[in-house]
Amino acid sequence: MTDTTALQTPTAVDLDGESLTITRLRQIAEDSARCKISPAAMAKVAKGRDLFEDIARQNIPIYGVTTGYGEMVYMLVDVSKENELQTNLVRSHSAGVGPLFAEDEARAMVAARLNAFAKGYSAVRPALLEQLALYLNQGIIPAIPEIGSLGASGDLAPLSHIASTVIGEGYVLRDGRKVPTAAVLRELGIQPLELRFKEGLALINGTSAMTGLGSLVVGNAHDQVRQAEIITALVLEAMSASTSPFLAEGHELARPHAGQIDTAANMRALMTGSGLTVGHAELRRQAAEAALPGNGVRRTEVYLQKAYSLRAIPQVLGAVRDTLYHAARTLEVELNSANDNPLFFEGREIFHGANFHGQPVAFVMDYVCIALTQLGVMSERRTNRLLNRNLSQGLPDFLVAGDTGLNSGFAGAQYPATALIAENRTISPASTQSVPSNGDNQDVVSMGLISTRNARRVMRNNNIILAVELLAAAQAVDLAKRRNELSPAGRATYDLVRSMVPTLEHDRFMADDIELVAQALREGRLLQAVTQRGLTLR
Fold first, then answer.
1. Residue 46 Cα distances to 38, 39, 168, 338, angstroms
2. Catalytic residue list contains 63
């Protein structure tokens, strides 16, 4: 499990190549926290560079230093072509296309690349680390197209668009639009760098795009799980559901998966103080009272157990959590790894290997994509129970407050949620989609950045699915006329919804309501509303 809890943004985040967490990366990327390179890391970088230059000046074959790149490794290049070789690599690979990554996503990628260099094995100059840190601290954000990485020889295309800004070329973002880098650097009085031995290769030959973006996705997905738990708790209150499935012993003693334990604990905390949910003992009493005398088979209207979408929440959302915990561990290892090629270790043979290959990240981000898809399915199925009069504990058809038939209530609002769970299911794992490239030099590729973008897409779709469930849950509370019996967390949830969207008394244009609540979920406002009431969620 990783530290993904919200922390106060520090004055500066230290980057040392060893200890960067997803939480700290999010602070740099999302909160624009300043970063600084630890003196010990910088000293290690400087020493490694000095040792490497002694080797490189001997004009011996070193991949990407005195040879061509990729399939052209058989071409030897004299040391006199040092700058030209590195610059041409960056220019030729700045070929990404499509929409641009958002500013926070680009910042995450730059910070991830900088921390990889701080590890000290990439043999770049300290000046390169200083330039990347300057960019982050001055808000110079590379414009990085989303499409073009195979995730094998690293994220070559997106990282080349970062590298192009380092040499004063390409584009940076200003107010969400791309503008020429050279003009911005002139305005700020910043000199672009000339790339020296290996520095162009080191900049683009790594997993920092998929790892930086993946870290944001996993961090935000953890918040999405928490918000899904909050919404679920309100649904359970609205439907007078049982608290029995969340008893600690069923999870901590019987089936102690970490995520399952955490979700069950959150559900107990969220429903504490509720006058609407019931315990199993009360359900047994109701069933016994409702039974007719006799020795045969007897029917009651009391259900001792609810459907899985109302009962298997710790098991399903807990499994989503465990997926995120696993992904976070993998990403944090990658954030603190030297993942380019070749690598240099004092007194050892030059390591010509493949640390740039994104397979570990690709696998876990596909896993995240699958898990988040199931989160959306659970949400839509609870919405369906609220809207179906045969499943909703006596609530009216489609939560219609006025005349049923004349009004359709939430019937139309369910459609986008249903459509999006179907769309999420079509987003196939990318890590199995290897396609050879680069003259068959890159003959097995990870597609890790595609896996990461897929997970991000599902997470974004889920915000709309969850928004529909949240709106329906608040409507159900209104129709039951028992909002004063809500738990403190339930009341905070209900109040947030009603501060944005009024009760649906009669049919109205629904798209704006859904988008407004979905935006609040994207911003984490539901989680904030509950935690501001003094509740701490795992």
1. 12, 10, 23, 16
2. yes
